[in-house]
Write a structure and sequence with these properties.
The complex is a heterodimer of chains A (about 350) and B (about 375). With about 350 residues, chain A is mostly helical. Chain A has 15 helices and no strands. Chain B has a domain of about 250 residues: Orthogonal Bundle (ABC transporter involved in vitamin B12 uptake, BtuC), CATH 1.10.3470. Chain B is built from 15 helices and no strands. Classes of the chains: A mainly alpha (about 350), B mainly alpha (about 375).
Chain lengths: ~350, ~375
Amino acid sequence: MDALFHIPILGFVFQFLAYVIDVIVNGHIDPIILGLATPIALGALCGVMNERSGVVNIGIEGMMLFAAYFGFMTALAVSNVLPAEPGPVFGATPALVVGVVAAIAAGVVMSLLHAWLSIHVRADQIISGTIINIIALGLTSYLNRLIKPFGSAGTFQSFRPPAELVNLPVVGWVFEMFLAVGPIAMSVIVFVIVLQILLFRSRWGLRTRAVGEHPKAADTVGINVIRLRTRNVLIGGIFAGLAGAYLTLEATGSFQNGMTAGRGFIALAAMIFGRWTPLGAFGGALLFMGSQAFGVAIRLAPPPGDLGTFLTGIQQGYPSLYNNFFLGLPYLLTIIVLAGVVGRSIPPAADGRPYEKESAT
Amino acid sequence: MISRLRGYASLAVVPALSIFLALVVASFLIILSGLTGPEGSLDLTLPFVAYASLIKGAFGSVTGMANMIVAATPLILTGLSVGVGLKAGLFNIGATGQLLLGGFTAGLIGALMAGAPPLPAVLAAVVGGILAGALAGFIPGFLKAFTGAHEVVTTIMLNALIQLMISGLVNDIFRAPGFSFARTSPVGNAELGGIGGTPLHFGVLIAFACVPFSYWLLWRTTLGFEIRAVGANPTAARYSGMSPRRMIILTMSLCGAFAGLAGTVEILRLGYYPAVFGTSIGFDGITVALLGRGNPFGILLAALLLGAMRAGAPLMQIQAGIPVEIIDVIQGVILLFLAAEIVVRRLFHLRAARTGAGELQTITRSYSERVTG
C-alpha cells in the first residue's frame, strides 16, 4: 500500500484519494457538507421545477433572499409575542415553525411574480429573473435598514442520532451525514427522492417534461400548458422559500443584507451540472459543497506525506487564491459541463420560450 | 423629420410611464419609512419631500450635477455593453465580470506606469482595460458560437469566477504594502483627476464619445448591419452569407470592451484596485440598456437618469431619512413595468409600438438552441 503513494504524480492521486476517504469516514465533516449543500440543493430543485416545464429561472437568488428575510422577521415577531422554550423535536418553537411557513409563502409570492411575467405577460424570462434579483436585494436591504431587528428567534437544532449508529465501521458516516442535521436539511433528501420519482415515473412528471420539451404537442393532447407551467413555477417557489428559511432559521439565526451571497447562482450551476434532474442536482450540490469542505479540512488537518507538504505550501503561500479556488470550482465545472468538454449538459428543448396558443412556430 | 420625432416619442412613452409608476410604487415604501421612524407618524407628504431632496441632490448645485455626470459615466458604458449585445440577440449579463477584469488590468498597468508621463500612462491603461474586458466577453461568445453554451449562464458563472480570481490575486500577489486593506499600488500619473476643480474627468469625454460611436457602428457600417441582421434572424443572415458564429464572437467581445472601459474609468478615477470592489454598475447596465431601448442615445438618457438617482440619493438619506437602497427598488420596479409592457399599455390605453418590444422577446428563445454556420 505504501509503495503506491510514492509513484510520481499517480502517487499524489492515490494519496489524495486515501485522504478523501479518511476525511469522509473519520473526519466528521459530512454533516457540514449536507448543511452547506442544503440551500444549494433546494434552490436547484426550484430550478428543476421551473426549467423542466420550460421556464428559465435565474431569479432563485432573489427568491431565496426574500424568503430568508420574511421568514426571519416573522419568526422574530412571533417569538416576541409568544416566547417559548425550544421543543423536544429539533428544538422547534412556534416562532420557528411560523417563520418557515412565512418563508415558503414569501418564496411563492416571488415565484408568482415570475410566473405572471414569464408565462402570462410573456415577458423575457431572463429579464424577469433579473428583476426578482434586483427587487429582492433592494427591498430586503431597505426594510432591514428601516426596521432594525432586535434579538433572534433562535434556530432549529440538529438531530442527535444514536452513537451506536454513527460509530458503525465503514457506513457510520452515512448515518451521521443524513441524520445529524436539522429538519430542513433532513427534508432535502426526501424532496429529492420524491421529486425524482414523480418527475420520471408519474403522469404529472410526464406532462411536465412534455410541456418543457414540446408544449405544442402537449397542448394538442389536451394538457393545459399555461396552467401546468404556472403550478410548477409556484411549487418551485416553495423550494426557494425553504432554502431561504434554512439560511436564517436553521443555519444562522440572523439576517444580513445580501446573505444569499451567490448561493442562488450556485444552485443554478448544480441544476445544470445535474442535467436538470433532482438527483443529479443534489449530487452536484454535494460535490460543489464537498469540495469547499475539503478545502477547509485540508487547511485544518493537511494530509500526511508529499501531498500534504505541497498543499500546505500553496495554502500558506497563497491563502486567498487557495480559498477562492475552492469557492470558484462550482462555476468552473459548470462552464466545462455546459460547453460539453466532458459529458454535455443539454437543457429542455422549450426552455425559455413563452407559450402562445396561436403562435405559428 | 416630424414623423421621425413622433416615432422616437412613441418609443419613449412606455419607459417614461415605467419610471413614473416605479416612483409611485416606491412612494408607498417611503411612507412606510415614516411609520417606522422615530415619530412613527403617517406622513403622506414624505414621498414629495424625499423626491424633492433627491432632485436637489442631483441638480441643486454645480457639484451635484458634476457628481451626477461622473456617476452616469460608467453606466453609459455598461449600458452600451448590454445594449449592443441586445441588437445581436445576445443578453450580456457578464458586464460585471468584464468590468472587473478591465478595471483590474487597467489598475495593474497604471501601477506599472505610475511614473511615466500622464498621456502614455493613461493610454496604456485604457487600451489594456479595453482588451481585458474584450477577452472576458470573447470567452462566452466563443463558447456560445462553438458549443452552444448559453451566454446568460456562462456569463453568470464567469462573473463569480473573475471576481474570485481577481480578489485572490490582489490579496496574495499584487497587494501593495503599507495599506490597512488589500489593494494594488497607486496608479500615479495614470490617475484620472478632476478637471478645473470639478470631479469631471477625462473618462467622461470617452464615455460620451462612445454614444455616437456605437450609433455610427450599428447603423452606418457593414459590421453593424450584420450584427443587427444576426440579431433579427440568424437563419436569414446565414443564408445571405453572413456568419452568425463570427458575429456572436465579435459582438460579445465588443460588449466586453465597453464594460472593460467602464471598469477602467472607475479604477483610474479611484487611483487603485481594491480587493473588495463591490459595484452594481454591471447590473445597472441592464436597466440602462432596457430603459434606453437598446438605442445609444436612449442609453445616454437612461444612464443620466440613473446617475442622477445615485448622485442624489445621499442627500435624500440625510434630509428625508430614506435609506439609499430605495434606488435599487425603484430600478427593479422600472424594469418590472418595462418587462410588462403589454400591461402598461393596456393600463394607459396605448397602442402597441411599431418597434422595440420585438427584439427583446427573442433573446431567451435561443436558450436551448445551438448556433450553426
